[in-house]
Amino acid sequence: MKLFLSKRRVAIAAVVILLGLFLVRPGVSRLKARIANSISQAVARPVEIGAVHLRFLPQPGFDLENLVICEDPVFGAEPMLRAPEVTAVVRLTSLLRGRLDVSRLELTDPSLNLVRRADGRWNWEGLLEHTERIPLAPTAKSKSEARPGFPYIEASSGRINFKAGQEKKPYALLNADFALWQESENTWGARLKAEPLRTDMSLSDTGLLRMNGTWRRAGSLRETPLQFSAEWNGAQLGQLTKLVSGNDKGWRGEVRLEATLSGIPAAMQVDVDTSIDDFHRYDISSSERLLLDAHCNGRYSSVEAMMHEVFCIAPVGNGMITLHGDAGLPGVHRVDLALNLESVPVAAVAQLARRAKKNLPVDLVSAGNVQGNFTVKEEGASAGGPEFQGRGEITNLRLQSATTNAEFAPASVPFVLSSQRVSPRAGSTGKSIHPLEAEVLPAPDELHVEFGPFPVALGRPVPAQARGWVARSGYGMVIRGDGEVSHSLRLASLLGLPAVKANVEGEAAIKLQIAGSWAGNVSGSSSGFSSPRVNGTVQLHDVRATLRGVNGPVEISSAELQLLSDEVRVEKLRAHAGDADWAGSVTLPRGCGIPGSCVVRFNLNTEEVALTELSKWLGSQPNQRRWYQMLRSEEPTAPRFLQNLRASGKISVGLFRIHNLVGERVSAALDLDRGKLKISELRGDVLGGKHRGDWEADFTAGSPTYTGNGTLTGISLGQIAEAMRDPWISGTAGGTYQLSASGTDSTAFWKSAEGELQFDLREGVLRHISLASDEGPLRVGRWQGLMRLQGGKIEIQKGELVSSTGAYEISGSASLGRVLDFKLTRSTDVKPERLGSQVYSITGTLAEPRVVLTTPETQARLKP
Q1: Which of 273, 278, 445, 459 has the fewest other C-beta atoms within 10 Å?
Q2: pLDDT by residue (tens digit) across 349-386?
Q3: Per DSSP, what are the bridge partners of residue 418?
Q4: C-alpha distances in Å from residue 462, one per residue of 454, 455, 484
Q5: pLDDT for 25-84, tens place per residue?
Q6: How far apart are CA 667 and CA 663, in angstroms?
Q7: Contacts of 523 (CB under 8 A, 6+ apart)
Q8: Rounded to an integer, what distance in angstroms lies between the CA atom of residue 695 and that of residue 707?
Q9: Euclidean distance between CA atoms 202 and 192, whole angstroms
Q10: Comparing 172-186, 399-413, 414-428, 768-782, which segment has the lowest mean pLDDT?
């Protein structure tokens, strides 16, 4: 009954107070000053309020506008907190005692600045120390408690910024919901939920950070007992690396981090669990998910800024990776850690490598174990930095792949931890020098692991030797020795190195350096991770290569490959292809991506080559047909090899045979662009004379097209007649021509050919033609004119022919089948038309022409 009366009195008092406030409405300026003073006493900072509005429902209180909590001047001039809207809920019991006691502060869209001075002190430390000194009652105090209570401070959709002195860092927490309260007489509590971000770049999927903790009253901050737990979930690894370093390093996976801290800052127990689920490189996908996880614990001392008794463990298959010792925070320069690898299976390392290194075979099978012990020690700052020591070994190593048909089994690979750049030891004396010790193996000026030397079987009696390094930034290796080319290419594919996709057999003396990086920057770029760089020299001997798109192998008797950073040079080339022996050099660009995206440079020469054999080798005549093509007529096609190649260079030929026609000392500049061939400055000695011209060919369509023009000088017509196997003409000639044609063989070429020849013949004899019975073969002092080729016929219009019997105009046509239809008109006769003129009609064939005089005064005859 007494309890009921007490509650009734409180309710009546509350109603009376509310009515009083509603009717009296105390001055706003006076209320604003009292509220600001109340909040200021709680946070030990000056407080400013823009405006105050009374509220009665659902609870009595105030709506504050533009709340500003000023900063301690030693941390800067910018306010510690700004909030455009704040709701302050008042305890009704405090009003009964004539005091304004705020029980709850609700901040909307606040902005909080956390500042760290150069001496390491934070601006929130003073706030904690103040709350421990003031005699406030707990947030959930009893109604009979006379002391003012610590308000429950809650913020929603806030932003927390971080500053180092006056400099605002790009790191911040967005959509932050946080709360602060006094849990009991000597205990405070806090919680936080926010999304990490960087203000200088666009980020997504950075996860959600949650934190809960409590701390108790103590004489100093270092002696404050506390217990905090933090959890960071859903962070995407690429966005996390971009958050920390400013660049997306190209790694993917979902990151989870859990940490607990308990004790006092001077001796705090720290436990951390971290994991990355589905770890992989951004451009590598796999159906199998890879989970990386580890657990660490230790004891932190804020006095020393040291982690003591650190112990981390990461199980890997049936093996274990452990880390234990002591380590100081950055700048302390005190560390004593030991890392141990115990029976770590190579299969697990290979699984990780498949997600970090592209182009490794999906069916890669591995065996072996990794053992190693490493230490790092430092006592005080020194110019040399921490001292790293340690070594290990990969035992019973074996890598296999059915896809590449390759195996790598060096049995044992030793490795050692180093922080020094590898340098050659050629100057050492008194001891035998290993072949690879004279090699320069560039290594980074950072902590890395050197491995080798170890044998690499490449199909020769004596294996090659290799050594290298692996670091956080990348990897490098040197390999030297003899090997079979096919074996070496298969091994390169097994290890994910760029290799020619061709059937190649032969021997090679190898001296290579291989280097690459693990991580790339994919932000705003499509390049991402860089491919391994292979530099050095390779001496080829007796190599036989089968290329796609050609109908025969390339047989290289000897060549020297120089693998440079941007191109591959093939020097001192001696090869056989297209039934011809070639010599010279070829330069292939590197890093072009797909074939044909860059131009191949060349300078080749040969003593003799035949167009027919070269055409067959290039693939214009198919030499193999599949069973289902047997009923289909075999039609020649354009060379496939030329359609996928970009090349430019010079070529010279001692003897160039086109059927019965032979060109000597032929040279030209060739430019090929995916099936479009341009031949410039085509020079050569042909038919006793010289040729100079330009040609173009287009192989991109089903039927190739050709266009050309040029100049002929000093051509022996007797050699033309000899090539035609009919001595019908002799003399010398010259001229200029233009020609266009299409077709995949000579028949189609000449059937479609069209062109012009402006010719000039001197001192010739037409052996099958005679114009009078008492004369021998027609002797030509000069014959010049224009020939047009079209539709398989050669047409001459108003040509001028000067012979011993006079000057004539010649017109008519001849077919490519050697059928003649010409007329010779005596141009020097000036007679009335009625008397007629001397006109000779020449018909028949080139071998057996018929000459008929059409005037009555002259009788033509056919020479036997």
Answers
A1: 445
A2: 988 888 888 888 888 899 999 999 999 999 888 777 88
A3: 448
A4: 13, 9, 11
A5: 454 566 788 778 877 877 778 888 888 887 766 677 788 899 998 988 888 889 999 999
A6: 10
A7: 201, 242, 247, 248
A8: 6
A9: 23
A10: 414-428
| Contact (CB, 8 A) for 278 and 289 | yes
How far apart (Å, rounded) are the C-alpha atoms in residues 840 and 858?
10
User: Which residue, 807, 817, 761, 759, is CA-closest to 787?
Assistant: 759
Stretch 155-169: mean pLDDT, rounded? Answer: 90
| Sign of the C-alpha dihedral computed for residues 798, 800, 805 and 806 taken in this order | positive
Helical (H) or strand (E) element with 664: strand 661-673
Do 85 and 63 contact (CB within 8 A), yes or no? yes
Distance CA 357, CA 529 (A): 9
Cα atoms in the 13 Å half-sphere on the side-chain side of 555: 10
What six digits make up the tokens of 480?
Answer: 């030297």
Which residue has better confidence, 87 or 8?
87
Alpha-helical runs (H) found in 581-628: 611-618
Location of structure tokens 């060096």 = 410
**Which H or E run includes 363?**
none
- Please count the residues of the chain: 864
Cα–Cα distance for residue pair 221/133, rounded to 1 Å:
12
DSSP for 759-824, written as a single string: EEEEEEEETT--SSTT--SEEEEEEEEEEEEETTEEEEEEEEEEETTEEEEEEEEEETT-EEEEEE
Judged against a pLDDT cut of 50, whether residue 277 lies above it is answered with: yes
Q: Which two tokens stand for residue 612?
A: 């027919």
- Give the residue carrying structure tokens 């017509």: 717
Is-contact 428 458, C-beta < 8 A?
A: no
3-state secondary structure of 73: helix
Residues 6+ apart with CB under 8 A from 442: 421, 422, 476, 513, 515
To 5 degrees, how large is the angle CA 678–CA 681–CA 682?
Answer: 80
Residue recorded with tokens 């949650």: 210
Q: Which residue from 815, 816, 822 is spatially nearest to 843, judged by alpha carbons?
A: 822
Q: How many CA atoms lie within 13 A of 429 on its CB side?
A: 0
Rounded to whole angstroms, how far apart are CA atoms 574 and 539? 12
Closest CA to 227 of 209, 204, 211: 211
**C-alpha closest to that of 135 among 33, 47, 41, 45:** 41
**Concatenated DSSP letters for 317-332?**
TTEEEEEEEEEEPTTS
Q: Which amino acid is at 184?
A: S
DSSP, collapsed to helix, strand or coil, labels residue 860 as coil
Other CB atoms within 10 Å distance of the CB of residue 363? 10
854: nearest Cα among 839, 832, 833: 839
d(C-alpha 711, C-alpha 690), whole Å: 8
Q: What are phi and psi of 448, to 5 degrees?
A: -150, 165
pLDDT in tens, 509-554: 999 998 887 655 555 444 456 677 888 999 999 999 887 778 888 9
Please give the Cα distance from 206 to 248 (Å, whole number).
12
Q: How far apart are CA 111 and CA 375, in angstroms?
A: 45
Task: Report which of 615, 598, 439, 407 is spatially closest to residue 510, judged by C-alpha positions.
Answer: 439
The CA-CA-CA angle for residues 146, 19, 14, to 5°, reads 30
